[in-house]
Specification:
Low-confidence stretches: none
CATH topology of the largest domain: Alpha-Beta Plaits
Radius of gyration: 27 Å
Number of helices: 17
Number of strands: 15
Strand content: 25-35%
Shape: globular
Structural class: alpha+beta
Length: about 450
């Protein structure tokens, strides 16, 4: 049992505890009292790491003699400052917390994956050579892939989710993958731990087509042998994206328009062969050189670039963006939130929208996917978890949604597809536009 501290030392200790954010510990050495600020943080996949900062010595009369740190820590006055300073030299910390320049590059390419390096360099105030070096490092570190941000609506499809809770035995991951990869409309599937066991994100032309496809999947022996509760809902586009599987793009070949006597004009949801071809190639590699695409498909010079712009102008695709396939996170969390207090949410709607899109110190946005759902009526969130844990996220969202009931799960293994981890800037989101409109309405009312 530690010896009791003198009353005067105890009084100074209490003052230090009020002043500093983390725990204050006292080490007694040869009758002298040394004060430290201490904490433990989770660092990537390496586990917990202890940090401490020597604050100074407390004399027996209670006088506090502040530490005089040497060299690089002379300007540090708190443990948080010390951790940040030390972490700046830690390779893992640099991966978890990219600096301002790296963040700016990630944001620029998340919004426009084809943006020339010269334009990025000019915007963030760096040389082209420096941007090129940093970009190559970022691509390697985070496994960056360039693809397209595209939704199903231009092709006559809608977004849906399926949440499955197995009763008893579960199908193996390998067997489920074999079934689901043969369904082009399923864009993402993953096993879960928590409230549900399986999550699917898929497209369908209407509810009848959805029911038919899910009936087909559930009737497959892989799934039919396992009893399960299936919860199905639409999901609206709100924030983030899910990369489109090549198999879905391949299936769109049926919607390529060829001029015939029966179809002299394109019908809604149809594309020209050139539009389909460029869409397919950019989904594979969104940064592929247009001139090489012209040569590859025997197009006139400039045709690929023109088609790319046409696809964006028509709203068939939103942008070329990035997908980080190797992010140093603990896991991805999936939260299904029942919105029980719509009045409270509406009052604080601006606050919630800001929370969704505000910047983070991590290489990705706070959420990979956010959308309104109808069963239960509320919202679905998919978020990368780095070091705060799913409990902290649940609490934050519950507070923002004013007591929403939350069912949480951890994505344990991805069966099919990928999540769209990226770092898109707030001003390039739907939420930002809504916030601006809300502010205008507030100004009018005042």
């Amino acid at each position: 049992m530690a010896a009791e501290l003198p009353t005067s030392v105890e009084k100074t200790l209490k003052e230090l505890k009020r002043k500093y954010r983390h725990s204050i510990v006292i080490n007694t050495i040869n009758g002298r009292y040394y004060a430290y600020e201490a904490t433990t943080k989770s660092i990537g996949s390496t586990g917990n790491k202890s940090f401490n900062l020597y604050l100074g010595r407390i004399k027996e009369n209670g006088e506090f003699v502040e530490a005089n740190h040497r060299k690089r820590e002379t300007r540090v006055r708190t443990l948080d400052e010390s951790i940040k300073l030390k972490s700046s030299e830690d390779p893992m910390s640099k991966v978890l917390h990219p600096d301002e320049k790296d963040t700016a590059i990630l944001e620029e390419l998340s919004n426009d994956g084809r943006k020339p390096l010269a334009e990025i360099a000019k915007k963030i105030g760096m040389s082209i050579t420096s941007v090129k070096y940093r970009l190559e490092r970022l691509e390697k570190t985070y496994g960056i892939r360039y693809t397209i941000d595209i939704g199903p609506r231009p092709f006559g499809f809608f977004r849906f989710i399926a949440l499955v809770k197995f009763i008893g035995d579960k199908p193996s991951i390998e067997s489920m993958k074999k079934v689901l990869e043969g369904v082009p409309t399923v864009q993402f599937a993953a096993t879960l731990k928590g409230s549900y066991d399986l999550f699917m994100y898929l497209f369908a032309e209407n509810t009848q087509a959805l029911e038919n496809k899910l009936y087909e999947i559930r009737s497959n022996p892989v799934f039919s042998r396992s009893k399960a509760k299936w919860s199905i809902s639409y999901i609206t586009y709100s924030y983030g994206y899910v990369p489109i599987r090549e198999e879905f793009i391949e299936s769109l070949k049926e919607r390529v328009w060829h001029r015939t006597k029966e179809t002299p004009r394109k019908k809604p949801g149809m594309m020209t062969y050139r539009e389909y071809t460029i869409l397919k190639e950019l989904n594979r590699n969104g940064r592929e050189d247009f001139a090489s695409l012209d040569r590859k498909f025997g197009l006139d010079p400039g045709a690929a670039q023109y088609t790319y712009r046409t696809l964006i102008e028509k709203g068939i695709m939103k942008r070329v963006t990035i997908c980080m396939e190797r992010v140093p996170l603990h896991y991805n969390a999936l939260l299904v939130c029942s919105q029980t207090d719509i009045q409270g949410f509406n009052i604080h709607r601006r606050e919630f929208l800001t929370y969704e899109i505000e910047g983070t110190e991590t290489p990705t946005n706070r959420f990979a996917l956010v959308g309104d759902i109808g069963s239960p009526h509320g919202m679905l969130f998919v978020a990368p978890i780095y070091d705060t844990g799913i409990g902290s996220l649940e609490k934050e969202i519950s507070n923002m949604l004013h007591g929403a009931e939350i069912e949480s799960s951890i994505i344990s293994e991805i069966i099919l597809g990928n999540l769209g981890h990226r770092k898109i800037a707030a001003e390039n989101t739907i939420q930002y536009s809504i916030i601006k409109e809300l502010d205008k309405e507030t100004q009018k009312q005042s």
